[in-house]
């Protein structure tokens, strides 16, 4: 039998008497290999890696390290055995610096009074970041960093303890192509040094770029393990969802209706300049560009999160003055943010509270909320979006990423908008949930909604958009139709190398 550094045998796990999240799952990891773990949201991936890293304990089953049974009562137990994890939910301290976050728990103290040598700490952090090819100020507070930068700091924090087994849960979800490539170089370097890596990603192209083997889970059960060189995207998708997905991007052609939104010369100094475009009923307008191109900033300005310095916004031909999100919502504009945890959801609250949050005033009579009406409305969107949960009273924090995203959409659809701005709507969700989101986009477009789709995934932006705006350094550098769009053309424009225009 082949020797494995880690073996998981016949693991079961359930919560509060519900159907098991994991049912007899098996997994093994060789020394110095990159082993991808795939499955739809709710397949049990996160639960499995939390068991391996000591966050959760199995109901029964065994974990073996180098052939010997082990038990982890907490993450520190796992860490002492050389196992560390980078989870999708970042575990950083926003008020502390980058250096403090990287070395937290293993600071080097001055001998006499156990005080921190700050000069040495920042110097060591800077040296460590440079060794990873990361350019972030070690003195910067984490709260002031972008999502992508926070993700990089989290990865650096885990690598600073030099683990023998590294678990990476969606490590590239917030990274640019360049940052992802840099991370892959780090991962390959770790592999060469003998580090074993469990790699979770919803981007199948990443699995084929980085992994040696891949294991698929579905509905809490082990489906199979393949050598990456001997499988295909189609086979892995079929293993994950139990059926073939003939078309990942089920775009439905819709009839373009009346002009809904016109943006004319919109400018926010230092972020974007002279942005102009139109959005029609039944249209999906894609906005592409690299991180920092101004895509999100434009969306947030239209929604009233940010103020404009110049320019005009028109709704159905009438100029409007949007000072805050409340103004935008009253005009039928909603914004699904890139970071659903930070800006889209109240995680400790249930599905009902999250769904009705923007419309509580309409559900209240003399300040008292009609709870029956609140539940009826929530059930409507719960069923419409096929939210997979035990019921409408389930806490949002316990839902899978795809179902959390559906709750964000339910919240905004409950306001009965006409313009939806979707900022990275499928970030960190599985292939099946992505298709469900795409089908919803089609349905809403057919019903006459105008949709702005911001995405870093080229196939998604090409597959689902009717027209695509490309931004570079805060400016629109071109607009192309879906028929004209190719990944090469969009990337070339996003990099500012060449401008393509369509009359």
Q: Domains counted in the coordinates: how many?
A: 3
- The rough form would be described as globular
Most strands sheet: 6 strands, mixed
The level of helicity is: 25-40%
Task: Write structural notes for this entry.
- There is one protein chain.
- The chain folds into three domains: 236 residues, P-loop containing nucleotide triphosphate hydrolases (Rossmann fold), CATH 3.40.50; 165 residues, Rossmann fold; 74 residues, no CATH class.
- It contains 18 helices and 22 strands.
- A hairpin with an 8-residue loop joins β1 and β2.
- The longest helix is centred in the middle third of the chain and has 16 residues.
- One of its GO terms (molecular function) is ATP hydrolysis activity.
- The complex is composed of two ATP-binding proteins (LsrA), two transmembrane proteins (LsrC and LsrD) and a solute-binding protein (LsrB).
Quick gist of this model?
This protein is α/β, with parallel strands linked by helices and 503 residues long. It folds into three domains: 236 residues, P-loop containing nucleotide triphosphate hydrolases (Rossmann fold, 3-Layer(aba) Sandwich), CATH 3.40.50.300; 165 residues, Rossmann fold (3-Layer(aba) Sandwich); 74 residues, no CATH class. The chain is built from 18 helices and 22 strands.
Features:
single chain, 503 residues, alpha/beta, Rossmann fold, 3 domains, 18 helices, 22 strands, 24% strand, globular, disordered C terminus, ABC_carbohydrate_import_ATPase, ATP binding
Explain the layout of strands and helices.
Layout: E1 6-13, E2 22-29, E3 34-38, H1 45-52, E4 60-65, E5 68-70, H2 75-80, E6 83-86, H3 98-103, H4 118-131, H5 147-159, E7 165-169, H6 177-192, E8 196-200, H7 204-210, E9 213-218, E10 221-227, H8 233-241, E11 259-268, E12 272-280, E13 284-288, H9 295-302, E14 310-315, E15 318-320, H10 325-330, E16 333-336, H11 340-344, H12 351-356, H13 360-363, E17 364-365, E18 368-369, H14 371-384, H15 401-413, E19 419-423, H16 431-446, E20 450-454, H17 458-464, E21 467-472, E22 475-481, H18 487-494
Parallel strand pairs: 3-8, 3-9, 6-7, 7-8, 13-20, 13-21, 16-19, 19-20
Antiparallel strand pairs: 1-2, 1-4, 4-5, 9-10, 11-12, 11-14, 14-15, 17-18, 21-22
């Amino acid at each position: 039998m082949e020797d494995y550094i880690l073996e998981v045998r016949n693991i079961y796990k359930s919560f509060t008497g519900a159907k098991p999240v994991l049912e007899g799952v098996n997994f093994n990891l060789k020394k110095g290999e990159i082993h991808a773990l795939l499955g739809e949201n709710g397949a049990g991936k996160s639960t499995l890696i939390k068991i391996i890293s000591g966050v959760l304990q199995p109901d029964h089953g065994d974990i073996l390290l180098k052939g010997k049974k082990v038990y982890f009562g907490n993450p520190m137990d796992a860490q002492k055995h050389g196992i560390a994890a980078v989870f999708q939910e970042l575990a950083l301290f926003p008020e502390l610096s980058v250096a403090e976050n990287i070395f937290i728990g293993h600071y080097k103290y001055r001998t006499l009074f156990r005080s921190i040598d700050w000069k040495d700490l920042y110097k060591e952090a800077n040296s460590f970041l440079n060794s990873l090819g990361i350019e972030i100020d070690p003195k910067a507070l984490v709260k002031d960093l972008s999502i992508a930068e926070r993700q990089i700091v989290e990865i650096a924090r885990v690598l600073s303890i030099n683990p023998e087994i590294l678990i990476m849960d969606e490590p590239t979800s917030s990274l640019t192509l360049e940052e992802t490539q840099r991370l892959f170089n780090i991962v390959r370097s770790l592999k060469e040094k003998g580090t074993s890596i469990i790699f979770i990603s919803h981007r199948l192209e990443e699995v084929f770029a980085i992994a040696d083997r891949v294991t698929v889970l579905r509905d809490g059960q082990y489906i199979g393990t393949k050598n990456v060189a001997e499988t295909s995207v189609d086979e892995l998708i079929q293993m994950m969802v139990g059926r073939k997905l003939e078309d990942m991007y089920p775009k439905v052609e819709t009839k373009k209706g009346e002009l809904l939104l016109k943006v004319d010369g919109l400018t926010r100094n230092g972020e974007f300049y002279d942005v102009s475009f139109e959005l029609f009923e039944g249209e999906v307008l894609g906005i592409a560009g690299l991180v920092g191109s101004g895509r999100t900033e434009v969306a947030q300005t239209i929604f009233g999160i940010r103020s404009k310095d110049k320019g005009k916004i028109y709704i159905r031909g009438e100029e409007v003055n949007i000072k805050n999100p409340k103004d935008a919502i009253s005009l039928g504009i909603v914004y699904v943010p890139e970071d659903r945890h930070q800006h889209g959801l109240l995680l400790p609250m249930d599905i009902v509270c999250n769904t009705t949050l923007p419309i509580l005033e309409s559900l209240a009579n003399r300040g008292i909320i009609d709870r029956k009406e609140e539940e009826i409305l929530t059930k409507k969107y719960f069923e419409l979006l096929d939210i997979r949960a035990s019921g409408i009273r389930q806490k949002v924090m316990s839902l899978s990423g795809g179902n959390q995203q559906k709750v964000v959409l339910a919240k905004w659809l409950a306001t009965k908008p006409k313009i939806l701005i979707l900022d990275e709507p499928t970030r960190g969700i599985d292939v099946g949930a992505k298709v469900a989101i795409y089908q919803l986009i089609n349905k809403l477009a057919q019903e006459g909604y105008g949709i702005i789709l911001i995405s870093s995934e080229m196939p998604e932006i090409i597959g689902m958009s009717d027209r695509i705006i490309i931004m570079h350094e805060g400016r629109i550098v071109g607009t192309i139709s879906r028929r004209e769009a190719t990944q090469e053309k969009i990337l070339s424009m996003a990099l500012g190398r060449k401008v393509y225009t369509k009359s």
